[in-house]
Every structure is written in structure tokens, then in C-alpha cells.
Design goal:
This protein is about 35% helix and about 15% strand. It is an alpha+beta fold and about 150 residues long. The longest helix is centred in the N-terminal third of the chain and has 50 residues. It starts with 7 loop residues before the first helix and ends in an 8-residue tail after the last strand.
Length: about 150
């Protein structure tokens, strides 16, 4: 009998320990990935907000672009001088679509938002006083309305 060989039970014990470690590590990695996507969305929303404000300043009379599902490609990339140089896609949408943008009926307030980790948009609009309509629980948003801040 070879005393340097591993028994079947020792090999199974090592495999079980590795499986337990992998089982603990994978969910933690998923949480880190969601945090990274949330940070990316917040940074890109700030970039889009800067582009919207630049668009506003270059219009005569000053105005924000109308509501559009493709705000960057429809308006911000077509300005002269060019305001946006590339399309930014919502990292939480599986169909690679742009961030959402909604303008209030009076044209003073806007909200730009990401679908958030659940991948579904909960924000449905913004009123003429700058209040956001819809649920704010999951979406990551930025607005120029009163008390505006990123969520």
C-alpha cells in the first residue's frame, strides 16, 4: 500500500471545502457587480445632465430637448458644436437602450433615469412643479427639479 496516496474520502472532503468557498464567493461577487453598475449609472447620468444643461444654454430661446427615448443620439450628438460624442447605454437594461429622459409639460424640469438593478422603469414622468411621478424605490435618477439629487 502506498502511504503517499490520497484516499477517496480525503479527495471528497477537499472538493466539498472548495464547493463551500465558491458558494460563498459567487453571491458576494454579484453584489459587487451591482454596486459597480450603480456607480457607473450615477456617473453617466451626471454626464448626461451636463450635456442637457449645455444644450439648454446653446438654444435660442433657451429650451431643453423634448422627451425622447434616444435623447443622446437624437439631440445631444447632433448639436453644433457637438455636446455628446458617444451614446451612453443604461447598464441595467438587457436591450442596450439609452437612459430614460422625460421633460415636464412646461419644459422647465426634466428627469433622466436608469431602470436600476431590477431592470424595470418605475418613474413615469415629471410634473410642472418638478415632482417626479411614479415609484422612486429602485430607479437611479437625476433631475433639475426642486430638491434634486441622485438616488
Amino acid at each position: 500500500m502506498n502511504k503517499n496516496a490520497f484516499t477517496l474520502i480525503e479527495i471528497l472532503a477537499v472538493i466539498m471545502v472548495i464547493a463551500i468557498i465558491v458558494g460563498i464567493a459567487i453571491p458576494r461577487f454579484s453584489g459587487v457587480q451591482d454596486e459597480a453598475l450603480m456607480t457607473k449609472a450615477k456617473v453617466e447620468l451626471r454626464t448626461i445632465q451636463s450635456a442637457l444643461e449645455s444644450y439648454y444654454m446653446h438654444q435660442t430661446p433657451s429650451a431643453y430637448p423634448p422627451t425622447s427615448d434616444t435623447i443622446i443620439s437624437d439631440y445631444l450628438m447632433r448639436q453644433v458644436p457637438q455636446i455628446a460624442s458617444q451614446i451612453l447605454f443604461d447598464p441595467f437594461k438587457s436591450d442596450q437602450s439609452e437612459y430614460n429622459y422625460i421633460l415636464s409639460d412646461n419644459g422647465r424640469y426634466y428627469v433622466i433615469f436608469s431602470a436600476g438593478p431590477n431592470g424595470e422603469e418605475s418613474i413615469s414622468g415629471i410634473d410642472d412643479e418638478g415632482a417626479i411621478a411614479g415609484s422612486l424605490t429602485d430607479d437611479i435618477y437625476l433631475t433639475n427639479g426642486p430638491g434634486s439629487d441622485t438616488q
